[in-house]
């Protein structure tokens, strides 16, 4: 990366939101890098950062063993922002008292600001505002020299600072990086520009140029496959790779039998206008469904699907000959939920294209979008000139409808869910409902319920309707759809989808739930 960019280093203690912090910093046009919390002081110094951020994480400072981290960094003349666990760690090592909260905070809380001189500068002064909490411990007593900046009804110290002896340490119990913290971007900008003195010089175009150079340098004269799913992620990855290596790229679209209605035909056509793109369509429906037969556990489904995808790609590579690399449109939310990206984060679920891959692969992976979020990829897609029809597509999981069918996957259940999904997409399409939705889809539950249809008793399937709003997929809230919209969708599902007699609406947020059910 160009040395002319100011850099913020984030020490990752394992938070699910670590890359979201980096992304918010990039939105402010400041370059950011994530290092594991155990990174050495020499490694940090070599990056010449303008400031440090300690992320949150699943650990507690009351554990017998704390995650490894370079405590000597506290002797550096660098501004530090501690978030959630990062705040508790700074409080703990500075002589404060941290204890288990009598009432944990997960989700929305109301923050009252007490000091608006630096970190909370230029925020509206009228009353409390919403912030997003995710913690079980809290600060009971401030460390010596620290000043309380804000509180919530459950956290008497929700923000604090230490500005003495050349140190500039700021701490937040809440997560400013998530979309549900109302003034989170402004709080982070205050840290970047007011406290650290950063310059806003890093853009998505600079990311694109750097990534294309990296792909070209790695591939050289070798041939490349790109896993094309029809979504914006794989499309952007494909166009970036084509810009880097041209006709050395072959795109492969696999029909795994788990796609939505008519997508096996319509999606490959969407790429026909890209001159020079070679796109192979592979019918692998039987092989996927055969391996999924009788499998109910969602983690097993994901691993089976991930491994079978690789088998198909490797078979196609043998047919083409001399293919070395496989490009995937893996995004950061896939990575952070599947594996620990840079710190000790917990595995939430295995994504088929990350944790579901076999340990030994003949093809080498290239994942140019691995550190980006969905809306960043959409910005990148516009930079590349992709059509808006493709850029605006709602996220669709790589394992497809298999993880929207709770329990074993069968042809009969796939048919039911395809019809239900088509109705949901039609009724909740952009422009049909008067709000912007992140995702809207149907889930087929593994239960049947009694109903009455045409004066006859029925014992049929249940569809759960999942509709959420989000900015990046890392956090999400259920959509408050008008009752008449819910009524219309429910009526169509029950009347038009054979085998369905009940519809329920999911009103849980992420966290504590995930967007997908499996």
Quick overview:
The chain has 14 helices and 18 strands. The chain has helices at residues 18-27, 41-46, 85-93, 184-195, 204-219, 232-245, 263-270, 285-292, 298-320, 332-338, 374-384, 388-391, 411-427, 483-496; strands at 7-12, 31-36, 51-54, 80-83, 97-113, 129-141, 147-151, 159-162, 169-172, 223-227, 249-255, 279-283, 323-327, 364-366, 439-453, 456-469, 477-478, 500-505.
Describe the structure.
This protein is an alpha/beta fold and 518 residues long. 31% of the residues lie in helices and 24% in strands. The strands form 3 sheets. A 9-stranded mixed beta sheet has the order 2-1-3-4-9-8-7-5-6, sandwiched between helices. Strands 12-11-10-13-14 form a 5-stranded parallel beta sheet, sandwiched between helices. A hairpin with a 7-residue loop joins strand 16 (456-469) and strand 17. Helix 6 crosses helix 11, helix 8 (285-292) runs antiparallel to helix 9 and helix 13 (411-427) packs antiparallel against helix 14. Residues 347-355 have low confidence and may be disordered.
Low-confidence stretches: 347-355
- Computed over alpha carbons, the radius of gyration is 24 Å
| CATH architectural name of the largest domain | 3-Layer(aba) Sandwich
Could you say which overall geometry the principal axes of the C-alpha atoms support?
Answer: globular
CATH topology of the largest domain: Rossmann fold
Count of extended strands: 18
Largest sheet: 9 strands, mixed
Oligomeric organization of the protein chains = single chain
